[in-house]
Specification:
Length: 496
């Protein structure tokens, strides 16, 4: 936060002191506001947002603590600095319990005030950054998407920025990663949301019919054209045209598509009349478009015309924090559709789901969950219900029941620990040594100085990840915490 961005409210009933504090601060170019009564202070904080509030406890019409309580109850995003000449330990403790950040006892000089204000601004800035990280992390659903992983947060941010514009969006990603969902999200967040979204799969339509599907045709344009037909371009007028698998399009048709994108005009098959439409383009492919250009299968000029805002969708294997969230979402959805009582997975089943590579991405996960629900009965999904090839993974998951109750490892990682009836899960196939244990990570070590708790926690988690060859879900299973806990903490450490 820049100093010139900071707004400060001074609540002081003494005109002399109020002007003095103003003179201390005005050289820093802060935006200053002054009030001399409690009621004026309450009115001001109701109408304006302040970064800092300098609050005198002794006001003519009320106690300053009442104003502090109001700020605290309304959760206003400001730091409060108490100013008092009547301070006592009791009053200071009370103000701190209602969220006061610091206090100044009269008299104080300019340096003391400036230092306190600057520290408060740094605290406000940090809290806003942490809140932004928290909001991003907790955004686990977004216009059809389900997922809270860092890669998906990036996708959400790009969609939010791109949707209001008219710019062409080029979505890339493996099959099953949600490219059509992405196109729908862009359309729903755009000013065109009340107009049609027309989707066309360029790989599912025969080459000879593709031009007619896009531009339409007139009666008699070719054998079988017994009636005129609207194309996707005309149906999408004022809305969005989504061309999926764009790299499958025939080279000759790519020339006509390029002209259409450049001019907004086209001709129906069999017609000499030009038609004009207003269309926003979203394209997608599961190939590498640049490699297609290099291979001569996709026009370079069309590529650069379409590739204005690229959105690469991550494969599911790079979204480990989202796998169980998606699985639970589909379990609830399909159980309701099939009228089955399924409501949860066993812990061991979740470890298997997290450990699978998912080459078919979200579509494969959907199919697996539906297969389980259709072919089985019960309220809990066990590993025995998993279809191939996931059932092969169950042989590599060893269940070890504790004979004693040692100190729980999640006490070292205190963020929503998961308890699974005193059962520990180990992925033996991916460990360098099946007998390797994380116990050594928790053994006390001799150090000259005591490490901060967060650093001890960080060392434990990083050691666990290393022992599991970088597989975070496996490390989470060993540490008996949710994988999302580790992802959240890694995100915090990376931002430090």
């Amino acid at each position: 936060m820049k100093d010139t961005d900071a707004s400060i409210l001074i609540i002081e009933d003494s005109p002399t002191l109020s002007k003095l504090y103003k003179s201390y601060l005005e050289d820093q170019s802060y935006q200053l506001a002054l009030v001399d009564t409690g009621q004026d202070a309450l009115n001001s904080i109701s109408q304006h947002t302040y970064d800092i509030v300098l609050l005198d406890l002794q006001l003519p019409d009320m106690n300053g603590i009442d104003i502090l309580k109001s700020i605290h109850q309304r959760k206003l995003p400001c730091s409060v600095i108490i100013i008092t000449s009547h301070g006592s330990v009791e009053s200071v403790v009370e103000t701190m319990s209602y969220g006061a950040l610091d206090y100044l006892e009269k008299p104080f000089n300019a340096n003391r005030l400036l230092t306190t204000v600057q520290n408060a601004l740094k605290n406000t800035q940090l809290e806003k950054q942490l809140q932004t990280l928290k909001d991003n992390f907790e955004r686990n659903k977004f216009v059809g998407f389900v997922g809270q992983s860092t890669p998906m947060q990036r996708v959400y941010n790009i969609i939010e920025s791109a949707a209001p514009s008219k710019a062409t969006v080029f979505v890339t990603g493996e099959s099953g990663t949600g490219k059509e969902v992405c196109a729908e999200a862009i359309h729903k967040l755009s000013p065109r949301k009340g107009q049609p979204l027309v989707a066309l799969n360029c790989g599912a339509i025969p080459k000879d019919l593709m031009e007619s599907e896009i531009f339409g045709h007139i009666k008699g344009a070719f054998t079988g054209a017994v009636a005129p037909r609207q194309g996707a371009a005309e149906r999408a007028n004022k809305g969005t045209l989504f061309l999926d698998e764009i790299c499958e399009m025939d080279m000759d048709l790519q020339v006509k598509l390029l002209r259409f994108i450049q001019t907004g005009t086209y001709q129906k098959v069999g017609s000499s009349e030009m038609q004009k439409v207003d269309v926003r383009f979203v394209c997608a492919t599961n190939r590498d478009p640049l490699k297609e250009v290099e291979a001569g299968r996709f026009r370079e000029d069309l590529y650069y015309r379409l590739h204005v805002i690229p959105i690469p969708l991550p494969p599911l294997r790079e979204r480990e924090a989202d796998i169980i969230m998606l699985a639970r979402h589909f379990l609830k959805l399909y159980a309701k559709e099939e009228e089955k009582p399924f409501s949860q997975f066993t812990p061991k089943t979740e470890v298997v789901l997290n450990s699978f590579h998912w080459p078919g991405n979200i579509r494969q996960l959907q199919n697996v969950i539906r297969n389980i629900i259709v072919l089985n009965d019960g309220d809990t999904v066990d590993t025995e219900m998993l279809p191939p090839p996931l059932n092969d993974l169950t042989q590599n998951i060893q269940v070890r029941t504790r004979s004693a109750a040692p100190i729980r490892q999640e006490e070292a990682i205190s963020d929503n620990p998961i308890s699974h009836d005193e059962t520990n899960y180990e992925i033996a196939s991916t460990m360098n040594d099946a007998s390797t244990s994380l116990d050594s990570a928790f053994k006390p070590q001799t150090h000259d100085a005591i490490q901060p708790l967060w650093m001890v926690e960080k060392n434990v988690i990083e050691r666990a990840i290393a022992l599991c060859d970088g597989n975070i879900p496996q490390a989470a299973a060993q540490l008996e915490v949710s994988p999302s806990t580790i992802y959240r903490k890694k995100q915090q450490w990376d931002s430090m």
